[in-house]
Write a structure and sequence with these properties.
Layout lengths: L2 H5 L11 H24 L4 H16 L5 H10 L4 H21 L8 H9 L22 H15 L3 E2 L5 E3 H4 L19 E3 L2 E3 L4 H11 L3 E10 L11 E11 L4 H16 L5 E8 L2 E10 L16 E10 L1 H6 L8 E8 H9 L12 H4 L3
Parallel strand pairs: 1-5
Antiparallel strand pairs: 2-4, 3-4, 5-6, 6-10, 7-8, 8-9, 9-10
Bound molecules: zinc ion (ZN).
Length: 372
């Protein structure tokens, strides 16, 4: 059976069901194209004959409607049942690309000159009426987008960005932050240890220790980055997530500075009408410690599904840096004081874009990512 005869039948009629047979069939078509283009190039014909033959070859394969590629599209691809269309489609796209690249009238010998002569052009430039090759642009990931937005607010306040390694020492991740060995987060269930002295950082707080040791006081930094915990993935938990923490160390820093800065931040991020609320909490690395909540940006505090009818949304933990933590960072707590906060970037992105599942961020589904 010739290629022409095969192109007129469906894959079913050709008795091809499995992917091997289909792959071989497409390979056979590509070989036929190669062979025809090859013999065309070898013929030593006059320019006008050559141009005519180039057109015949092009029409035979690429003519709309009745060319072999169009027939293959119609009889092989479109007639294939949905289940196997993906595989046949991939083969077909490869074939079509191959055919158009091989049977390009302008690049076949003899063709170009005559075409330009026939059109009476001195030199033929690119045809500007043809559609261009479209290359799809990517977009910035929503987590990165929100991270930059958060960073920008603090950079505007005079903070500087500081980053650190994701593989940390147990000392920087826990001991220096006043997290005693008995603290539950040291348990294996939460922390991914590499060995007895090294781990994947569970928060970005070790960057605070590194920055204090490196730069000393006064210090105004935010520390965005990835963190890791041994969590089972669900709607709001992921084993890898992003945090951003802030640290301000200077003389005469008080809780009022913390409240003023974070209230300003919440208004910048969620809108001018946002109100904030601070409640006491406990963290080993701050004393006193607090939780900051903002009035719900969706209902303005009236109560809705997102804020679970409370009118408030918990945003972050914060507090005055524990004197021992300053000491571990090489800063004299008698002279300096500081405040710090830490928040999850995914949570802010979920609030900002009304996303219900944290897993959406990490599944690389283009239909999701295209929306940003
Ligand atoms: Zn609400």
């Amino acid at each position: 059976m010739t290629i022409d005869e095969k192109a007129a039948k469906t894959l079913d009629e050709l008795g091809l069901a499995d992917s091997n047979g289909v792959g071989e069939l497409f390979a056979e078509v590509r070989a036929a194209i190669e062979c025809e283009v090859d013999s065309f190039r070898r013929r030593e014909a006059s320019d006008s004959d050559s141009a005519c033959e180039a057109k015949t070859l092009r029409d035979r394969w690429l003519a709309r409607g009745h060319g072999l590629i169009a027939q293959i599209d119609q009889n092989w691809l479109k007639a294939t049942p949905k289940e196997s269309r993906g595989m046949v489609g991939a083969e077909f796209n490869r074939l079509r690309q191959y055919a158009t690249s091989q049977i390009d009238v302008d690049s076949l010998p003899g063709a170009r000159k005559t075409t330009s002569a026939a059109r009476g052009e001195a030199a033929r430039g690119p045809d500007l009426t043809l559609p261009g090759n479209q290359r799809e642009l990517g977009s910035i990931h929503p987590v990165t987008r929100v991270q930059r937005e958060l960073e920008d607010i603090f950079i505007g306040l005079g903070f500087r960005i500081e980053t650190g390694p994701e593989i940390e020492s147990v000392y920087n991740n826990f001991d220096a932050l006043n997290i005693p060995e008995s603290h539950p987060s040291r348990d294996d269930w939460d922390t991914l240890y590499i060995d007895s002295t090294t781990l994947l950082r569970t928060h970005t707080s070790p960057v605070q220790i590194r920055a204090m040791r490196k730069h000393g006081a006064p210090l105004y930094i935010v520390t965005p980055g990835k963190c890791y915990r041994n969590e089972n993935p669900d709607a709001t938990h992921s084993a890898m997530f992003h945090q951003i923490e802030g640290l301000a160390v200077d003389t005469d820093i008080t809780f009022a500075d913390l409240k003023g800065t974070l209230d300003f931040f919440a208004k910048k991020f969620f809108g001018e009408r946002t109100r904030t609320r601070f409640q006491p909490s406990f963290f080993p690395f701050t004393e006193p410690s607090g939780e900051m909540a903002a009035s719900c940006p969706f209902c303005g505090g009236q109560g809705c599904r997102t804020c679970k009818e409370s009118g408030w949304i918990e945003l972050m933990g914060c507090g005055m840096v524990h004197p021992d933590v300053l000491r571990h960072g090489g800063i004299d707590p008698e002279r300096y004081s500081g405040w710090a906060f830490g928040l999850g970037i995914e949570r802010f992105a979920m609030l900002k874009y009304d996303i219900g599942e944290i897993q959406n961020f990490f599944q690389s589904d283009v239909r999701f990512l295209k929306q940003f």
